[in-house]
């Protein structure tokens, strides 16, 4: 009878070790997934990263850059319930207005005379998954999604795009 109890105890012990091992393996896999998942927004330390000292791409032929790297000189736009963003003060800025009079998107046009260089924020029913076809796209999301996207290949515009995105924050949803 004792041999039977020892055999049962060994089986129960093995079962317990397998269950604990499985739980530990699941915890490690979940932690690794959360740490290395794709699409997470990069963060930066504002104390060590000063956008005002950003090195701008060199313009061909010694031309004046199309925007100032000093964010303090940029215009601010507050889109209630969506985003608070900044854009170069010498660029054109337009709101996309829906039939009901609400702002549904923003359009920032650089002084390049190239339609591909326009930077879009949001848009009528635009979701982050809808703008993946654009050459450069980013997304701010929490309870809402606000896509930033452009088809530009101009390095100065893409640098400005990065600064616009990095200096934008989601605002609370309207109540």
Quick overview of this protein structure:
This protein is an alpha+beta fold and 175 residues long.
Task: Describe what you observe in this structure.
- By secondary structure, the chain is α+β, with helices and mostly antiparallel strands.
- It folds into two domains: 1-37; 51-170, no CATH class.
- It is built from two helices and eight strands; from the N terminus they run H-E-E-E-E-E-E-E-H-E.
- The strands form two sheets. A five-stranded antiparallel β-sheet has the order 3-4-5-7-6, covered by helices on one side. Strands 1-2-8 form a three-stranded antiparallel β-sheet.
- The N and C termini lie far apart (71 Å).
Q: What is the H-and-E element order? A: HEEEEEEEHE
Please estimate the helix content.
25-40%
Mean pLDDT, rounded to whole units?
A: 82
Give the amount of beta strand, in percent. 15-25%
What is the number of strand segments?
8
Name the strands of the widest sheet in spatial order.
3-4-5-7-6
Please describe the biggest sheet, giving its number of strands, its sense, and whether it closes into a barrel. 5 strands, antiparallel
Number of domains: 2
CA(first)-CA(last) distance: 71 Å
Poorly predicted parts? 39-56
Shape category: elongated
């Amino acid at each position: 009878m004792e041999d039977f109890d020892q055999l049962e105890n060994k089986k129960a012990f093995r079962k317990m070790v397998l269950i604990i091992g499985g739980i530990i393996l699941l915890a490690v896999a979940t932690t690794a997934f959360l740490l290395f998942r794709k699409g997470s927004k990069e963060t930066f330390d504002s104390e060590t990263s000063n956008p005002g000292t950003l090195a701008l791409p060199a313009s061909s032929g010694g031309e004046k850059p199309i925007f100032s790297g000093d964010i303090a000189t940029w215009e601010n736009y507050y889109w209630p319930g969506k985003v608070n963003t900044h854009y170069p003060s010498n660029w054109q800025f337009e709101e996309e207005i829906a039939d009901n009079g609400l702002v549904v998107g923003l359009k920032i046009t650089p002084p390049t005379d190239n339609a591909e260089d326009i930077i879009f924020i949001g848009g009528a029913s635009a979701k982050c998954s809808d703008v993946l076809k654009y050459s450069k796209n980013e997304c701010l999301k929490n309870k809402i999604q606000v896509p930033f996207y452009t088809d530009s290949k101009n390095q100065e515009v893409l640098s400005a795009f990065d600064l616009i995105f990095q200096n934008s924050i989601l605002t609370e949803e309207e109540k």
